[in-house]
Amino acid sequence: MNKLYFLILLMFSSKITNAQVKSKAFDSLLNVMVTKAVPLVGCEDIKKMKNIVLLDTREKREYEVSHLKDAKWIGFETFNLKNVASVPKDANIVVYCSIGVRSGKIGEKLMQAGFKNVHNFYGSIFEWVNQGNPVYDMAGKPTNKIHGYNWKWGVWCNKGEKVYE
């Protein structure tokens, strides 16, 4: 009975968010690792959003390899609310990192600071790249490179040229 209840709960919780990743194994990992305290969005949700503010919560070296178009770097270890002082409290904010763990933690901080429309990108930049979407280098040009964080986490990024420096 416990297993059935857990499966029903898991199915119900994934329908609430509409955030999806293509890999069932990756989805299983994300279901355990990513906080549900911040509303989740997926690739298709992001493509439909209007007036979106993308905030990259990875470390600077990761952002410098590639990031989503027009994303603002705010960091994780070095995150400070001063980094988002220019972002209106009612902006449509999407935070992301490699898979959604760090961005979820930053999303919670933003919500606690009074930001109203904060969303965490489920699967984050890895899923964005996995689904064939473009990322950009510091010159604003499309790139095939993606920072894999480390070799353990990089396995979840199936496309692009992984960089670990």
In short:
Keywords: Signal, Transferase. With about 160 residues, this protein is of the alpha/beta class. It contains seven helices and nine strands, in the order ααβαβαββαβαβββαβ.
Structure, described:
A 5-stranded parallel beta sheet has the order 1-5-4-2-3. 37% of the residues lie in helices and 18% in strands. It has helices at residues 2-17, 24-33, 43-48, 60-65, 101-112, 124-130, 151-154; strands at 40-41, 52-56, 72-73, 92-96, 117-121, 135-136, 142-143, 145-147, 161-163. The protein is of the alpha/beta class. Residues 1-17 have low confidence and may be disordered. The chain has 7 helices and 9 strands; from the N terminus they run ααβαβαββαβαβββαβ. It comes from Emticicia aquatica. This is Thiosulfate sulfurtransferase GlpE.
List keywords for this structure.
two-stranded antiparallel sheet; 9 strands; 165 residues; Oxidized Rhodanese, domain 1; 7 helices; alpha/beta
What order do the strands of the largest sheet run in, or round the barrel if closed?
1-5-4-2-3
Query: With helices defined by DSSP (H or I, 4 residues minimum), what is the helix count?
Result: 7
CATH architecture: 3-Layer(aba) Sandwich
> What sort of overall outline do the alpha carbons produce when their principal axes are compared?
globular
Instruction: Flag low-confidence runs.
Output: 1-17
Class of secondary structure makeup: alpha/beta
Q: Separation of termini?
A: 48 Å
Rg from C-alpha positions?
16 Å
Question: What's the total count of β strands?
Answer: 9
Please report the first level of CATH classification, the CATH class.
Alpha Beta
Overall mean pLDDT stands at: 90
CATH domain topology? Oxidized Rhodanese, domain 1
Order of helices and strands: HHEHEHEEHEHEEEHE
Q: How many domain regions?
A: 1
Helix share, percent = 25-40%
Query: In this structure, how is the largest beta sheet organized?
Result: 5 strands, parallel
Determine the CATH superfamily.
Answer: Rhodanese-like domain
Strand content: 15-25%
InterPro entries: GlpE_sulfurtransferase, Rhodanese-like_dom, Rhodanese-like_dom_sf
Enzyme class: transferase
EC number: 2.8.1.1
Pfam family, one: Rhodanese
